[in-house]
Amino acid sequence: MTTSTELLRARRFLPLFVTQMLGAFNDNLFKNAMVLFVVYSVYNSEEAEARFSAIASAVFVIPFFLLSALSGQLADMRDKARIIRVVKFCEIIIMLVGGAGLTLAWQGVAVSTLAIPLMLLALFAMGVHSSFFGPIKYAILPQHLRREEVLSGTGLIEAGTYIAILAGTIVAGWIDVHWAALLVVVLAFLGYVTGQRVPPAPPMGKVEPLDFHIVRSSLNLVRNTMHDRRVYLAIMAISFFWAIGAVLFIQFPPLAKNVLHASKEVASLFLVIFSVGVAIGSISINALLKGTVSARYSPASVIGMGVFLVGFEGVCRAWGSGTDGELMDVATFVSQPLALALLGTLLGIAIAGGMFVVPLYAFLTTFVDKSQTARTIAANNIVNSGAMVVGSLAAALLSAIGLSVVDQLLVVAAACVASAWLGYLLFKAECGAAPA
Fold this sequence. Notes:
Helices cover 81% and strands 0% of the residues. With 436 residues, the chain is mainly alpha-helical.
């Protein structure tokens, strides 16, 4: 029996895994239902659509930047399982607000003045929810799992997250917005139920007072975490990856609509392919490394990601003008001559990305003391969210100055070089720290 199979049968892992999947599914169902509705039913310009997509991404990640220090302290100083239960109860309330916004949008009632603000408010609140849950989902693993199981557990969490993203994205693209409004509330209830089954995870070290000054605590947390060179390089490499990912996810809906002349179901398909690819990459790298936490393959993986991005850009540029001005459905889209090449390069981008990022997360949970893991993940979330906000704002700025979404793909590909360099430096630091 493999380690992964053993973990999926164990109460010390399965309830956390299911709770995380339900949360990721709900996040993406709600966010994509909102973005696709606005892009395809409210706005009618590439610039406005890209700007709204960027704003939605920024609204979701800003809470990570502001609250991760507090959430990391809380997770290390309190029982992590108890925090999960509180956070999941809050998700029910948040989704009631978000569902109301989706329902108003479906009915065409005050779409710009009430429905969209309600949806953005719920999206911000889900960012707050995830900023408190995020440190726990990785930091709890070394507490419940054996050291040789941590990489498998991290890979399963990452793969499960992207499978959930996949499912949420598919559903958001294929069901009417009023059904999405109902489903997000139901899923929030289910997440609360599964969260009750997570075993206790009390503090592992000395319980210290919480610092509620979010600026001071954030600066102190990042500074104190970055003193280990391997942790510093892992965080910086992950941050570049998520900045790249933020730009790509912002680009997909307007790219599908305005460049590829495809429907919202095709935009959803792009996000699905990306999520499947990251899940495949997450599992594949665990098989290659055989449970060893190492950045050995990270530089080559992210270079491969850049190469596939250039190929994806080339296919987009060579794409035709569409079918008589009508948006193509999925069947029409996949019958196009370049469709397989487009989807293949997109899958390659995602697989390479998954292979790049999973070992880096494992670094953050295995190379620090167990009493510091939540704060280490929280520091990573602060830097990651800052990078994602920068990526979102950069995408909005590039759109505002007239750079097309296709040209922006080359900018993203160039950023992969920086990630590869950071991955190489991390591998060198890893080799230097290895015992002789």
